[in-house]
Write a structure and sequence with these properties.
Layout: H1 7-14, E1 30-32, E2 35-37, E3 43-46, H2 61-73, H3 85-96, E4 106-111, H4 114-129, E5 133-137, H5 146-149, H6 153-157, E6 166-169, H7 178-191, E7 194-199, H8 215-225, E8 229-233, E9 257-260, E10 271-276, H9 277-280, H10 295-310, H11 313-334, E11 338-344, E12 347-352, H12 365-377, E13 380-381, E14 383-385, E15 389-392, H13 400-418, H14 424-427
Parallel strand pairs: 3-13, 5-6, 5-7, 7-8, 8-9
Antiparallel strand pairs: 1-2, 2-3, 4-10, 9-10, 11-12, 12-15, 14-15
Bound molecules: pyridoxal-5'-phosphate.
The site of pyridoxal-5'-phosphate (PLP) has 17 residues, from helix 4.
């Protein structure tokens, strides 16, 4: 008799490889809070929260209840051809979170993913300004296909054809880089008819880069002066993750268009663009999706927003983020391979094996791949970005003891890998990015 195939093997044989970004043979059959269970019955601590989509944790009772109620209600309509009450309530709640919208001239456009939200925002900005050029940033991630992907620096670097009507500028990490950046921005605005600038308030897939204070403010001023629109992509770091409800609040910036996705749907497909009606309504029927704003996704979204507010998850992200930073700083002091720890709130990056001050020690991406593989073996799920940066975007409900477990496991994994616990052959089938 042949042994039953593992879930990972069946997945391999049934689901397109093109849709996979794998770092180890992970399967997830259920989850609760910050933990997930695999098909072998192991419980793992999830420091990714499905790339930030499950920011309230797995199977949050309030989200589960909201989804069940909406499904049982059975109306099944979206915003396309009917007024759908839960979508209207969610849109009203989202609008309330953005200053200036109380005048009543802003709207919400619903979709299913960060990719479609950013594509819709770009299309709306181009239609509203009658211009074509989009300014975006190297290392940026705005979408996994189509027009949002074509202005995403990470994909352009990976060989995906870039949008010829886009200009990619360096994303600043320090104050010292701002003057040069402003010179380039002024030059681009002086020579191109720019429709929109699209930017992450903290760059995630580009390597967890927290930009210097003044970056978003300066960008907004220059964008407005040029008659272009600023789109802030809050898909990954928005909705409490950075210790602000919206990450751009760190600079008190109110962009023209804001995009949301991932955590907004509490694990269900839901995205949104918030912007002036004059912009979002500009090109009629340009963004029609049959199930956009459906009752199930918007019910989940409403539960997510209400829980963030009522459970003070903005405060939780700050508190847990501070604890993790403290533990990681101590680990950096003891463990030579940890080169840098950075981020904001519960959007954290741990860079391994690359110290710009030691140029004779080159960046070693394989080491980081082996470390996250080892962490999976030890019961912790986390992924890497930009080759050698471990990204932590855990559920906002992560507990203090789970935070301790995360850092202890990281320490143990690095020491194990240092001593050869994981081979190149182990990680070869799972090279992720
Ligand atoms: C900042 C940012 N914007 C947009 C997206 C695209 O979101 P989705 O994969 O839900 O389409 C991502 C995905 O990682 C992201 O990180």
């Amino acid at each position: 008799m042949t042994a039953p195939r593992s879930l990972a093997t069946r997945d391999e044989r049934a689901i397109a490889g093109n849709q996979k970004l794998r770092f180890f043979p992970l399967s997830v059959v259920s989850g609760r809070g910050s933990e997930i269970r695999d098909d072998a019955g192991r419980t793992l601590l999830d420091l990714s929260a499905a790339w930030g989509a499950n920011s309230l944790g797995h199977a949050h009772p309030r989200v589960v209840q909201a989804i069940q109620d909406a499904a049982a209600q059975g109306a099944g309509s979206s915003v396309l051809s009917a007024a759908q009450p839960i979508a209207v309530e969610l849109a009203e709640l989202l609008l309330e979170t953005i200053p200036g919208t109380e005048r009543g001239d802003h709207r919400v456009l619903f979709g299913h993913s960060g990719t479609d939200a950013n594509s819709a925002a770009l299309a709306a900005a181009r239609a509203a300004t009658g211009r074509d050029i989009v300014v975006a940033f190297q290392g940026g991630y705005h979408g996994g296909f189509g027009s949002a992907q074509a202005v995403s620096g990470v994909f352009v670097d990976a060989g995906v054809p870039h949008d010829p009507a886009s200009v990619l500028l360096p994303y600043p990490a320090t104050d010292a880089q701002l003057p040069d950046l402003w010179r380039t921005v002024d030059e681009v605005f002086g020579t191109h008819e720019v429709a929109a600038v699209i930017v992450e308030p903290l760059q995630s897939d580009g390597g967890i880069i927290v930009p210097p204070h003044g970056f978003l403010t300066g960008l907004l001023e220059r964008t407005r002066r040029a008659g272009a629109l600023l789109i802030v992509d809050e898909v990954k770091v928005g909705l409490a993750r950075t210790g602000y409800l919206h990450a751009c609040e760190r600079e008190d910036v109110v962009p023209d268009l804001v995009t949301f996705g991932k955590s907004l749907g509490g694990g269900t497909p839901l995205s949104a663009v918030v912007g002036p009606a004059t912009v979002l309504d500009g090109a009629p029927a340009s963004t029609l999706l049959t199930t956009a704003g459906n009752a199930i996704s918007t019910a989940a979204g409403k539960a997510v927003l209400e829980t963030i507010r009522e459970d003070n998850l903005v405060g939780a992200a700050r508190e847990r983020g501070a604890q993790l930073r403290q533990l990681l700083a101590a680990a950096q002091g003891d463990i030579d391979e940890i080169s840098d720890v950075r981020g904001q709130g519960l959007s954290l990056g741990i860079e391994l094996q690359h110290d710009p001050a030691q140029p004779d020690r080159p960046r070693d991406d394989r080491f980081t791949q082996r470390v996250i593989f080892r962490m999976w073996q030890l019961g912790v799920v986390n992924y890497l970005v930009r080759g050698n940066v471990i990204e932590w975007t855990p559920p906002l409900i992560l507990t203090e003891s789970e935070g301790e477990r995360a850092v202890e496991t990281l320490r143990a994994a690095i020491v194990d890998v240092r001593h050869g616990a994981v081979s190149d052959a182990d990680v070869a089938p799972y090279l992720g990015w």
